[in-house]
Design brief:
Blueprint: E1 3-4, H1 7-26, E2 33-39, H2 43-59, E3 62-68, H3 74-85, E4 92-95, H4 105-111, H5 123-131, H6 139-150, E5 159-163, H7 170-179, E6 183-187, H8 194-198, E7 203-206, E8 223-227, E9 231-232, E10 238-239, H9 244-247, E11 251-254, H10 262-281
Helix pairs in contact: 1-10, 2-10, 6-7, 6-10
């Protein structure tokens, strides 16, 4: 019988911990503050930004929401980031991706002060992760580590396979699992005999961006399966990169979609913002 890793419950626990610590720290001065820049009117991005505002409110943070029209120039976005970099009352800066095509995402990420890069995308933070120094870690991979640890999954010495090599999930995920002393394999679109590789995994983390790609033939008996994907099917239901119904009975633990990895991303964003606040105020 498999178990469900409840991302909603674990993310709520993390937000409650952040809220309690923020309340104590805020008694002596200002609150932690997250600034979010949204360029354009992408509906999904607007929903994500709204969820981040709600999380800030719940955790007792101040939040700054900057909404810029689709035709905003790259120069205007960079100018706004520079203003937020120099604002002593702002602890975290997040630019909602994707950006309109005429704006270079790399330039925007590079413009954010690494000490306020609570998304963990700046090359300085990525480099710190790689060499084992302190810095902000991408929220989704960091959230997956919390899911595993708070579900009493022993990572050390386990064989971990990460399917996907994106800069936002796959690559940092592999490094974080190495930090936890797992033996890590990264698979991608050019991997040969994918099923043979994934069937070795004690912990299988899937972030490939293809609906229900992973079926039971890809999964070892008793594996822990983490599904990062989220897609909307033809009948408007949400599903992940893993075919949950086909795979679940083969696992020991599995994350559902929705309600698994998704809620963890915003919880870890709150945690990173609190860390930035503490670093910047010396508390």
């Amino acid at each position: 019988m498999y178990g469900i890793i409840d991302g909603k419950a674990i993310s709520q626990a993390i937000k409650d911990e952040v809220k309690a610590e923020a309340e104590k720290l805020s008694e002596t001065g200002r609150k932690p503050c997250l600034a979010v820049i949204l360029v354009g009117s992408d509906p999904a991005s607007a929903v994500y930004v709204g969820n981040k505002k709600k999380a800030c409110e719940y955790c007792g943070f101040d939040s700054v929401s900057i909404e810029m029209p689709e035709e905003t120039t790259e120069e205007e976005v960079l100018k706004k980031i520079a203003e937020l970099n120099s604002d002593e009352n702002v602890d975290g800066i997040l630019v909602q991706l994707p950006l309109p095509k005429h704006i270079n995402e790399d330039n925007v990420i590079l413009a954010i002060d690494p000490s306020k890069d609570v998304d963990g995308f700046h090359p300085v933070n990525v480099g710190n992760l790689l060499i084992g120094r302190d810095g902000f870690v991408s929220c989704t991979p960091a959230g997956i580590i919390e899911l595993l640890k708070r579900s009493d999954v022993d990572i050390q010495g386990k064989e971990c396979v990460v399917v996907g090599r994106s800069n936002i999930v796959g690559k940092p995920m592999a490094v974080l699992m190495l930090r936890e002393n797992a033996t890590v394999t990264v698979c991608h679109s050019r991997t040969k005999d994918l099923k043979e590789v994934t069937k070795r995994a004690d912990i299988l983390i899937v972030a490939i961006g293809k609906p229900r790609l992973i079926t039971k033939e890809y999964v070892k008996d008793g594996a822990v399966v983490i599904d990062v994907g989220i897609h909307r099917t033809e009948n408007k239901k949400l599903c992940g990169d893993v075919d949950f119904d086909d795979v679940c009975e083969r696992t020991s633990l599995i994350t559902p979609v929705p309600g698994g990895v998704g809620p963890m991303t915003i919880a870890m964003l709150m945690k990173n913002t609190l860390i930035s606040f503490k670093n910047r105020t010396g508390r």
